[in-house]
Specification:
By secondary structure, the chain is mostly helical. It contains nine helices and no strands. 56% of the residues lie in helices and 0% in strands. The protein has two domains: 52 residues, no CATH class; 79 residues, no CATH class. It is globular.
């Protein structure tokens, strides 16, 4: 789920809005979502089968994990990408309004950007390891999924 697309009555949203960091917001909503699902489906093993991921950004934010690669695909100066990151701090902090969402920023930088083709090409070239390094909320979720087998077999 995309944090900015969630309704205000979603579990944990009121508390999340009080958090100062993206990590805090994501953790608050993820925990509240898991609690709510467990309340309804706890007798079906939801505590081990449901791992929520509230993304603070849309997919395109992850593309900011490597400014050089992103800039090369967009044919823009890497300093344009660095400028966005210097204001936002990290890829997972970029999405703060419908006008400045990652995809809107990319479309503004270059008419070459297309979600379904450019985005996929950039992500493949950057690679999952680098994306995980620069997107700790996403990395934490993937790590939980990777640990499932060692926790409890189905």
């Amino acid at each position: 789920m995309d944090y900015y697309g969630i309704r205000k009555d979603w579990p944990g949203m009121t508390e999340a809005e009080k958090q100062a960091t993206s990590d805090g917001k994501a953790e608050t909503v993820n925990n509240a979502t898991k609690e709510e699902v467990n309340r309804f489906f706890g007798d079906h093993g939801s505590d081990r089968r449901f791992i929520p991921y509230i993304a603070m950004h849309e997919f395109e934010a992850m593309l900011f994990s490597d400014p050089q690669i992103l800039a090369a695909h967009l044919r823009v100066n890497p300093s344009e990408i660095d400028k966005i990151l210097s204001v936002c701090r990290s890829p997972e902090d970029i999405d703060d309004s419908p006008q400045t969402a990652p995809s809107k920023r990319l479309e503004h930088l270059s008419k070459r950007f297309k979600k379904t083709s450019t985005g996929i090409s950039v992500a493949k070239e950057i690679g999952l390891l680098k994306i995980r390094k620069h997107c700790p909320i996403f990395n934490k979720w993937l790590t939980e999924i990777e640990c499932i087998k060692s926790i409890r077999p189905y």
